[in-house]
Amino acid sequence: MKEKILEIMNDTFGIDNADEETSQKNCATWDSMNHLNLILGLEEEFEVSFEPEEIAQMTDFKAVEKMLAAKIEK
């Protein structure tokens, strides 16, 4: 799952170095539009859907991974 999330982040943000420390604070291309694109990519790839409150909390790799893991376990 981790590798797939990083792949989606790289594709969405147009970078090739996403890692576990990637966040809105240190990724210049992680803006509001790309945030939505990231969520859509994750929803499509993992066949889940996120609530607006969850989307707002997904501001770095670790939060994305945690939220996604919780969705997959359900």
Structure overview:
The protein is built from four helices and no strands. The chain is mainly α. It has one domain: Orthogonal Bundle (Non-ribosomal Peptide Synthetase Peptidyl Carrier Protein, Chain A), CATH 1.10.1200.10. Helix 1 packs antiparallel against helix 2. It is globular, with a radius of gyration of 11 Å.
CATH fold topology: Non-ribosomal Peptide Synthetase Peptidyl Carrier Protein, Chain A
Label the overall shape.
Answer: globular
Taken together, the total number of domains comes to 1
Question: Based on DSSP secondary structure assignment, what is the total number of beta strands?
Answer: 0
Q: Strand fraction band?
A: under 5%
Describe the main β-sheet briefly. Answer: none
Q: Report the CATH C-level class.
A: Mainly Alpha
First-last Cα distance: 16 Å
Write down the Rg.
11 Å
**What is the arithmetic mean of pLDDT?**
97
Structural class: mainly alpha
Examine the secondary-structure arrangement and name the CATH architecture: Orthogonal Bundle
